[in-house]
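#struct-pred

JT: dropping the chains for the assembly here, can someone run the whole complex?
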Amino acid sequence: MAAAFSCPVFLPSTFSYNGNRYHGRIKIKINATSSTKVKTLNEIAGAGKGSSSLATSTEIGHLSQEQIRQRIPTKKQLVDPYRQGLIIERGVGYRQTVVVRSYEVGPYKTATLESLLNLFQETALNHVWMSGLLSNGFGATHGMVRNNLIWVVSRMQVQVDHYPIWGEVLEIDTWVGASGKNGMRRDWLIRSQATGITYARATSTWVMMNEKTRRLSKMPEEVRDEISPWFIDKRAINEDVPEKIVKLDDNARYVNSDLKPKRSDLDMNHHVNNVKYVRWMLEVKIKALPSIYINSLKFHINLKIITTSFFLQTIPDKFLESHQLSGIVLEYRRECGSSDRVQSLCQPDEDETLTNGVEQSLLKNMILTPGIMEGNGYLGPLDVKSYGYTHLLQIKGDSKNEEIVRGRTRWRKKLSTLPYSS
Amino acid sequence: MAAAFSCPVFLPSTFSYNGNRYHGRIKIKINATSSTKVKTLNEIAGAGKGSSSLATSTEIGHLSQEQIRQRIPTKKQLVDPYRQGLIIERGVGYRQTVVVRSYEVGPYKTATLESLLNLFQETALNHVWMSGLLSNGFGATHGMVRNNLIWVVSRMQVQVDHYPIWGEVLEIDTWVGASGKNGMRRDWLIRSQATGITYARATSTWVMMNEKTRRLSKMPEEVRDEISPWFIDKRAINEDVPEKIVKLDDNARYVNSDLKPKRSDLDMNHHVNNVKYVRWMLEVKIKALPSIYINSLKFHINLKIITTSFFLQTIPDKFLESHQLSGIVLEYRRECGSSDRVQSLCQPDEDETLTNGVEQSLLKNMILTPGIMEGNGYLGPLDVKSYGYTHLLQIKGDSKNEEIVRGRTRWRKKLSTLPYSS
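RK: done, full complex below.
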């Protein structure tokens, strides 16, 4: 019960990974110049003890190379020493310790939003990995594979209070819950391992799609029996009524009509990855630039992502130092094909007062969070002017355009300090 | 003594990360809804015990937030539980266990070359991290910072025998050695943790540059004293005479003249990352496509990277299934500025016999590797037809073009199986 953030795309063929499965008995010879290890398959199959219960001696002859190399557990595991993961929350939640890597940060040493989204995906999949339910797919359970079902995300919301820095140790918690009758919610919390301070929170909702018909599906009883024991009623983000995201049209101030899915955008499920959508949403170009709209430029200058806007190269460093993305909501509407041509639209809020739903939700969470208002050295939410933007990704059609995803982003001044009190 | 794969770019200003350093006494309050931990700074400063000797109680008042969050060790460490790293090779080498993450693989579940390059950078930096020599920079030692010196890479060579798959546990070894009088070599080996089979090997050479004058520098005695105790005479790749890479000109078959460094291409040292160079090298477009050159298309279809070539979208899947990048050599010539416009040229080898230096080097290593010729189910090197390409990245100037990097790539049929013998 995980799901990766992907929108399935239509590709003409399926691909059987690594072709040959091996069905005979196997002896292993080693071609390592610097290693003197020589292991038999029995040793290899047993090597994952504690983290994997995959192999028994009778099964070995039927293990594929892929199975030997991946060692996906077939039973629930409580600890995974390689992934530094463990089961929490009375046996149903997952916590992973991760270090922010050098290539996950941007020029200011802080992790990019893209890196956080990648870590959400990774921990979600590792949660399913630990559950013993993971089948040969991208987060699909055995029951889902039997029913040709895959996960598709319908909504994703992320709030970032503080961006972690290079070398920082994080704890990422993730868990799942029910969402309506046929859906699933997955939430995340990112905390500093050293201080326990919450850096980011996220929530997402998922539904099942038939891989062949590409139609949404009810959750079969077989699948419900697998995943519902893992559901808990706890939320990373408190939000009573999700805000409505308006649909943009050609009057939007920023646009980029030159976006194409590439092979490199496809993940192992041959889907365009969610991270790519976020890149696209922010790859907008300025159609016109009246000086009164200078505030809206702040939108452009924070996400350290690939962008085609020449304008980006000329933004003063002081903007980059002072603002960051604080919240994002994505609503997925339809699949995006690998041959589709995608257009990205963006519109800044005209009214910068705090009447916006995302902002209210953000504010509410901040107020609900104990201690956050008490720090003297901390710019509390009431000091923070934030800027909102509405986004739309759509497929350019001959007769009509089709929506892929609607989005909202919030931006605010960077906090000068972490919430330490003096 | 590590160094990240970066080419310094000229940016107008320096940026002091996270502005304020905190100099008073600090009490910590926690704003975590799901965590009941409340730690004092003493606990936090002591939390890294075993992996960090950074903080003593007398130092605490002077720790910056960044120091508290990063906890870079000031003394040599033997084990880093968070990074799963340990010191090997009689105290001077570094080994890190990593799991191939879901977002590090391409559509065929195998790690991308880009991911391997990222892991090389990460382990190199973590090696310096463990040494206690890491200063506040991107792999620079304390002595280097005192002398305004940064590392720049002059050459990088990677050979990939097998691409690891999603979920696979790897051991990455890295170590350094002398390179001439003023340079340093850094090597890497990637092995399967389960079998000990070597998947990839890499070597690189580094020199020092004065950060202010942008001129190459001799290695000061102070720096030599820091890093030379870590030097060992061991090589991941056996190569007596590095092959010469010819310089391409406008007659090259593939070209992309539309490449611009973007903010998102800059790493925390405000440099264009080496990984970006590899992307650029392979972001070439076909100027013409005579059908007799169909073999050369194989170059385009393997690296799962961002590319602007529409052509890529239409390559038959059977090519993708059957070929992969097996070797790459990069020779760095000069810095690339953030305002430069970069052109990427590429030329396939006309003569596909095994007379090429890279190929010979590859072949020699394969033969030197015990056991590799013995596997019956394994396509040995003599069965493997490989395809070579020469690359050039240059800055388009008004009067003349300036070279940034020359490259060679080798491509070969994917092995149908790992080297197990039956």
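JT: nice. The CA atoms of residues 62 and 248 of chain A lie 54 Å apart. The longest strand of chain A covers residues 198-210.
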